[in-house]
């Protein structure tokens, strides 16, 4: 999870409370852009089924990769002889293998918005859950001797609590190898993830990348909507094969792309640009 996208989580949480009086004095529930996305991710069998299905796909792909020494998810980052390096997979944490929907839900319930301090408090509460199917898949990969690297934009300060939370949930934690690579853990590790991916690929044959955000796969995530789709087309052979994307309608670079990535715009302006960018059906005038 990154800070700026989370600001948008509260784009509609403008309300001082979730209930307001309407003109006739009745109590109306205030709107919140985050409601349906959070409800879907937290409660729906549809989301759970998609998540489980994607981890099952990852297992199939991992089996294929283990049987094929030429298989790599990061061919541009691996030097000569990668075929004989130990096998690794790289996954994002938040909204890929970790489920923070209780935090998102709390924003809606309290009619409040994201703050980085509160997010750190949330991480330190160690109440994050595992996504449906994540543990089964990661334990399977671990049982095959595959090293699992977690590349996250949780910060170095948030890493100890993140590790404790994950250990309690039963995530494979890498033994004596540092497999939790957080933002600013090294001076040149910013939000962009490609240099962290490359640091893993230096010593491992990386056979899968997994994430819920384009930035988990490429630094091209910050482009316009059109540029992002052009990148999708250019990398179409990866998706569902060695790059596996998980659904996250709550937040992500897809959202900021809709208003030019300019978080200094007001929440109302951001919403206007999102609506303005929609491709709409023009209804015929009714008789
Ligand atoms: Mg994520």
Characterise this structure.
- There is one protein chain.
- This protein has 287 residues and is of the alpha/beta class.
- The protein has a single domain (3-9, 34-260), classed as HAD superfamily/HAD-like (Rossmann fold).
- Helix content is 39%, strand content 13%.
- The chain contains 11 helices and 9 strands.
- It has a 5-stranded parallel sheet with strand order 7-6-3-8-9, with helices on both faces. The chain has a two-stranded antiparallel ribbon with strand order 1-2. A two-stranded antiparallel sheet has the order 4-5.
- The chain starts with a helix and ends in an 11-residue tail after the last helix.
- It binds magnesium ion (MG).
- Magnesium ion is lined by residues 92, 94-96, 211-213.
